[in-house]
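ESCALATION

Customer reports they have been waiting on this structure for their group meeting. Please prioritize. Original submission:
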Amino acid sequence: MPAATPLPAPDDGRETAGPHPLGVHATRVLRAAYPLQRAVYRVHDWLYRRTDGRVGRLFARRPCLVLTTTGRRSGRPRTVVLVYVLDGDRWVVVGSNMGSRRPPAWLLNLQDAPDATVTIAGRRTPVRATVASPGERERLWPIVDRRNYGQYGRYQALADRTILLVILEPVRG
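Update from on-call: job pushed to the front of the queue and completed.
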């Protein structure tokens, strides 16, 4: 298995990529749906965390985990619920931020401090985060996109940046 690479420095998100591959109308429709999507995600996140994973383990038939990172500015624990795909004993999560030009805050936190905790159904596991190498991304991207009904491919088309796959590997002993 190719070695994972360290998390890269944050991208300021100011790159532009010319005409949008989805077309202007599709882009507007997808962006208009963001407030509703975010509201649904927030309710799911709250339920999952509040019940320690007993409610909300699946979101639209996709498994979820709670990722606890260390805030890069505050130094305080920060949690987020993410859909994941298993790759052996590692969890793979996607830094899509719903196709935003900016990476999600949890990814920026991991870039600063890659040690984190994954919680699934109340079971906590210390992990170390790395970004998938280009070879790993090439192998894993079709899997995560297919298991998420093509959503990540649509987000990638919106993002104007390469959406990173983050590998969360359990820390042994």
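Sent to customer with the following note: The chain has five helices and eight strands.
Escalation resolved.
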